[in-house]
Write a structure and sequence with these properties.
330 residues, binds flavin-adenine dinucleotide, 3 domains, alpha+beta
């Protein structure tokens, strides 16, 4: 506690970056507006503008990419999940897939387990990786929460979502960079097979085109209007990408698209949000310990932020706390 209280005095430089916006820090260091705009080029990875992003988040979630690069898990994101599953099983744990949790059981302010379909799994510790709003307001239920806490969780705003087009093309794009960003038109093209050649047969390429999107711009999923908007948005993005990859549309072998409601459907993330809660300086993400004894939060909706690496960090903090910080010294 003493360390926490003394933190701003002992680390004044970092504390300053934590408590100011990225725009304030850019204005302190630079005069040239074009240079400032350029330094904001990767803020899409935070999902908020420079006047709303904490300077520390801008450093870790965008400026660090210039210094250290970004990484693509070989075999795709599913391979990363599979590696975690293997690690759990190697340590004697079990992973149950296709078990959607319908309820988190609470009695006398303490967690008692979860209900998944017709199975009741009892435990004095539950770590919820699903979004905090879903975990607390839906799976636990507001009747088990203090009114102010429930109101705080309800008030948290979601981050933006995205629209993505996934293409398999019969073109050799190995001479292209892996990531192409068009800041003027607000989209990015990722040639995944340049990062991981196993993703496409030789002479072909796997591509995703991505742009930020608003969940509420889309009608209910499955309606004619929804399918029409989804197709038109995908066509428009492919046309834009043709400016950097000429004749792209003539070489499509496989095509799929995902709107914010697709991300919501597959991950249960409200509004299909990219990074769970809004990542601006005013958002206070919920603490990983909840007021319900034994119920913990991990993942993008808690400290430190959204994105895969931050979600992993939150899991490490939570696991260490449950094990009372008895970690092995390597
Ligand atoms: C289009 C897109 C692109 C992105 N690109 C990047 C990127 O390039 N780099 C990066 O670092 N991050 C990226 N992100 C963000 C990143 O994917 C998330 O921040 C991260 O996956 C969050 O991890 P998580 O474990 O908190 O949640 P998730 O990865 O969403 O995992 C939650 C899991 O819980 C399961 N679940 C939900 N409800 C229940 C329930 N009731 N019962 C049981 N299981 C349930 C879900 O099925 C899911 O498997 C991107 C996100 C999107 C949508």
């Amino acid at each position: 506690m003493k360390k926490l209280v003394n933190y701003p005095r002992e680390h004044p430089h970092f504390y300053d970056w934590m408590s100011k916006t990225f725009k304030q820090k850019l204005d302190e260091y630079f005069k040239n507006e074009d240079l400032k705009t350029l330094l904001c080029a990767l803020l899409g990875y935070v999902g908020a503008g420079p006047e709303r992003t904490s300077a520390a988040s801008a450093l870790t979630a965008s400026i660090s990419y210039y210094l250290f690069g970004r990484y693509y898990p070989r075999g795709g994101a599913q391979h990363f999940a599979n590696s975690l599953k293997n690690a759990i099983e190697k340590s004697g744990g079990r992973v149950l897939v296709n078990h959607r949790v319908d309820k988190i059981l609470v009695e006398n302010g303490e967690v008692r387990g979860v209900v998944a379909g017709d199975r009741v799994l009892r435990s004095s510790v539950v770590v919820a990786n699903v979004n905090a709003k879903t975990a607390l307001l839906e799976l636990v239920g507001e009747e088990y929460l203090d009114r102010d806490y429930a109101e705080y969780i309800r008030s948290l705003k979601m981050s933006p979502s995205a629209f993505m087009v996934f293409l398999g093309v019969d073109m050799d794009l190995t001479n292209y960079p892996t990531l192409i960003k068009n800041l003027d038109e607000g989209y990015g093209v990722v040639i995944n097979s340049n990062a991981d050649p196993a993703l496409a047969p030789s002479g072909m390429a796997s591509i995703t085109i991505i742009t930020l999107a608003n969940y509420y711009d889309y009608p209910p999923r499955g309606t004619k209007e929804y399918l029409k908007i989804k197709k038109e948005t995908a066509d428009a993005l492919i046309r834009k990408a043709e400016k950097v990859i000429p004749n792209l549309s003539k070489h499509i072998v496989v095509r799929d698209a995902a709107a914010p409601k697709t991300f919501e459907r597959y991950t249960s993330m409200p509004e299909g949000a990219l990074y769970s809660f809004d990542q601006s300086i005013e958002t206070r993400r919920p603490y990983f310990k909840t007021p319900i004894k034994g119920l913990y939060l991990v993942g993008a909706s808690t400290f430190p932020d959204g994105e895969v690496e931050a979600a992993v960090i939150s899991g490490i903090i939570c696991a260490n706390d449950i094990c009372r910080w008895r970690t092995k010294r390597m």
